[in-house]
Amino acid sequence: MTAMSTTGPASEGKGARTRAAIQEAAVIAFRRDGYQRATLAGIAEELGITRSAVLHHFSSKAELLRQSVEPFFARLDEMLDRVESRAPIPDRQRRLLVTEVVDLVAEYRQVAAFLTSDPSVSSHLGPDLQLPARAQRFVAITVGAQGSELAAVRSLAALGSVLRPLIASDELVDFSDPATRQLLVACAMAVLKTPLPISPGSAPSRDHAGS
Q1: Which residue, 78, 135, 162, 211, has most beta carbons within 10 Å?
Q2: Domain ranges of the chain
Q3: What is the pTM of this model?
Q4: Cis peptide leading into residue 200 (ω within 30°)
């Protein structure tokens, strides 16, 4: 007699919901406590399940971290891929790119926050999941291969104006508020349009505000 399977659409759906709940609790813990101090036992306690139940879905804390950040990086890479071949992009496309970055950060607020604020995280992620590499791509897209070092600094400062507020509490900086996101876009664009200084004795740069 063949035993009936205990797995099916219902159990698979429950498993997916449990995985999603574990990941949601994990990114909150990673942001609040820092990756090093957050524990699987603490994440399990938040959900009212056991540590073994967490390990049933994720083989380790590092694996939980990796799977929690992968969707954010996949979306970010997709966004950068669409415009990278046209670098350096003009001002109007810069604004569209910055707007997309702000919206993505708002959607993945918890993940983006601990990626930017916890320096220990990068050592637990592979080379394909590193935020500095994406920052370099952002610079290349907004400045171009022939851009000056100062232009690169300006692009990084523009990106920083979006990412730096992530260290603040949700009450102080509400990324779900459209007005907040519009302000962040405006700040980043203001930085990108800032004229570059000319070093004493050097020839004027071909770069100019809004280029």
Answers
A1: 162
A2: 9-192
A3: 0.86
A4: no
